[in-house]
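Q: Structure tokens for this one, please.
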Amino acid sequence: MIFRQLVDPDLGCACYLVGDGGRAVVVDPGIRVEPILEAARDEGVRVEAIVETHVHADHVSGRELLARETGADIRLPAGGGHESGAGEPLAAGDVLVMGRVRIEALPAPGHRPEHLALLVSDLARCPDPCMLLSGDSMMVGGVARPDLAVDAHEGARSLHATLGSLGSLPGDVELWPGHVGGSLCGGGTL
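A: Here is the predicted structure, written as tokens:
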């Protein structure tokens, strides 16, 4: 399995390159796609899918530029109300497979109603999940803002339910957030 976290130092936003067998998916790409393309070349993988965990309010996505550069399919959270119409819906329960890597979409509303988290299994090691790409729902030292897309109380109730659901995952599942320190949405520092 290949796994690379790529952080935009200006925004503190993280995107991920995940794959196996020469194939990869990019999760939550920022507008600067050159580091993603370079990482894919370094790892010897072809980017076949681009997944957004949610509609981003804090940065401009590079999904369409990256798709033009790679020919990858775009997968957007179902119900996200995307203005461009580009991309196929990705719903909770959908699974992507890249070689021996399995990625399952989990519902994670709260930050945004359509928000998904992605549960990653490295089937070369074991069938159990090993990582959670939480998008903006969970972050190191904090959780997402619940007031960006809906009434704050409604968002907080949804986020509370999401945290309970994601918190029931096995304790050895690694958390990889969509923001790191230095982000306005994240906590702490790099």
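A few notes: The first strand starts at residue 2 and ends at 8. DSSP finds three helices and 13 strands in the chain.
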